[in-house]
Amino acid sequence: MEKRKNPEKDLRKQSGLFFQIGLLAAMMLAVSAFEYRAVKIEPTVDDLDGSGIDELPIIPITFPDPPPKPPKPILAKPVEVPNDEELEEEPDLQVDPQIWEDFEPEIEPEPLPEEKAPEFHDYVEQMPSPDGGYEAFYKFIGKNMKYPSKARKLGIEGKVFVQFIIDENGKITDVKTIKGAGAGLDEEAERVLSAAPNWIPGRQGGRKVKVRMVIPITFQLNN
Question: Where does the record place the TonB C-terminal domain (predicted)?
Fold first, then answer.
């Protein structure tokens, strides 16, 4: 009696073989897929038919001709002058010495500018001083000074700077106020100073000269 083969057993035996075949096929497919991704298809020159590409014009390159060389300078031959030529005789010039002796140019010498002495000095070797001293001079000023009524009513006090010139004779001239206090004080200071006695004149280089002076005169009310 023959033994029957169980088909399920045969399938189980062959299942391992099928598994290996399937695994091998899957691996081959995976490798072929990687190779397919890595391949990059680029068109070749043969694939381009050249249609649509304009041909660029060929521009010839030209070079200018080199400049011509400058001509060599032509040296002129020196011309020789013979020494045996006869020179014309020089004219005999005669000058009458009497003409030069009698001629005298009329040249008038220009007058030298006169050195003008200064009108006055500010500082000299010997400065002027009041005759009798400054104490006597200020005593005269205080005695003859009258306080202006306007300044007295307004209660104005101040110092007046008066400029004047002592001339060669010691006289007080050109009296004027250079810094005043107003209210009639300036005019009163000028009036009294113009009436003051003469001074001893200043000296420069041993001679009397004009000297400019400035003195202050103070006006003060007595309370």
Answer: 132-223
